[in-house]
Design a protein that fits this description.
It is a single chain. The chain has about 325 residues and is an alpha+beta fold. It contains eight helices and 15 strands. The longest helix is centred in the N-terminal third of the chain and has 22 residues, at about 55-75. It is globular, with a radius of gyration of 19 Å. The two termini are about 25 Å apart. The model is unreliable at about 1-30 (pLDDT under 50).
């Protein structure tokens, strides 16, 4: 099926966007077709498909956009030792932070508020707790002790992070992960850059996918929602024009061999999301799609439906634990 964006998350690792062959990493191809780029961004496979009548300009835009994404990665990465996020987690403060860090944390706090705290970038201590527990020999398969979870929850809460243009401050025992929103944000920034240069038809995926306009022939891009159980099989295909798509699912990364504990944490209880096999959101922005696919993983369908008039989401595709799909439309 031509034109499908296939998504199967492994800690927000995306499958390749359609039309992007197995290109060398961090490469671009000059041809009569679109300029194509494939690399990695914030631990995820990243791709761009840029359509432009001037091939030299298309290649220049590929280089410009990938360079901008790399600059933002230096702010938001958990794994680059000199990133701004690593510094914040280490010291509890960023003085004179980059505008993008302030903007992204402001966006994160907004989604924390509208979801009643279910989207929370301060859950990194829970990740560390579960990873440490299940790395131990003969780890209790029922998970970390309840007392340890409760103690860790005392270090979680977006409301304890102070964000201003001058500084970002949080208690030293806290830690942030931006993996639930940063890839979408970087995708949005790349889209803004390309649009500023007149690009009208392109596909950008910096860990989350967003289409600029339609395909060049006027047809929609096709977003394929992967079956969470059967690899390489699509559960459904969603047509998109000028929209972003994000999928969250506990199947992507699991701490234990039995698959009872995954990377989608409930900030209220310290437990893991089990309500759905996967949640896919379609939104105007990749940051919104990214953050809300995570939060919706913890919500009943009725609550998702009630929230849609107040958030930037057009469509939610759910797959329940039995494998039954359903949709909620705004």
């Amino acid at each position: 099926m031509p034109g499908i964006i296939s998504r199967r998350r492994l800690i927000r690792i995306a499958a390749a966007a359609t039309g992007l062959g197995l290109l060398p990493r961090n490469s671009a191809r000059a041809s009569t077709g679109p300029a194509l780029w494939r690399g990695t961004m914030l631990g995820a496979l990243a791709t761009m498909e840029i359509h432009h009548e001037d091939q030299r300009e298309a290649q220049r835009l590929v280089a410009l956009a990938s360079g901008e994404a790399r600059r933002l990665e230096q702010l938001f990465s958990l794994y680059l030792k000199n990133s701004a996020l690593v510094e914040l987690n280490r010291t509890g403060i960023l003085v004179d932070p980059a505008d993008e860090m302030v903007e992204l944390l402001t966006i994160s706090q907004h989604y924390a508020k509208v979801t009643g705290g279910l989207f929370d970038v301060t859950v990194q201590p829970l990740w560390d707790l579960y990873a440490g527990h299940f790395s131990m020999k003969d780890a209790d398969p029922s998970g970390p002790p309840p007392a340890a979870i409760q103690a860790t929850l005392a270090r979680v809460g977006s409301g304890r992070v102070s964000v201003s243009r001058d500084r970002i401050v949080m208690p030293r025992n806290m830690a942030l992960t931006l993996n639930g929103v940063a890839q979408g944000y970087v995708t949005d920034k790349v889209v803004e850059l390309l649009r500023s240069y007149g690009v009208a038809h392109s596909l950008v995926d910096m860990g989350e996918s967003r289409a600029i306009g339609s395909r060049p022939d006027g047809s929609p891009w096709q977003a394929g929602v992967a079956d969470p159980v059967v690899a390489e099989r699509l559960d459904t295909v969603i047509p998109i024009i000028d929209r972003a798509v994000s999928t969250s699912g506990g199947y992507g990364f699991q701490f234990d061999p039995q698959g009872h504990f995954n990377h989608l944490f409930d900030p209220r209880t310290g437990g893991c999301a089990r309500r759905y096999r996967s949640v896919t959101t379609v939104s105007h922005t990749a940051a919104a799609a990214d953050a809300l696919s995570t939060a919706f993983s913890l919500m009943a369908p009725e609550r998702i439906r009630a929230l849609l008039p107040y958030v930037d989401v057009d469509r939610v595709h759910l797959i329940d634990p039995a494998g039954t799909p359903s949709e909620i439309l705004a």
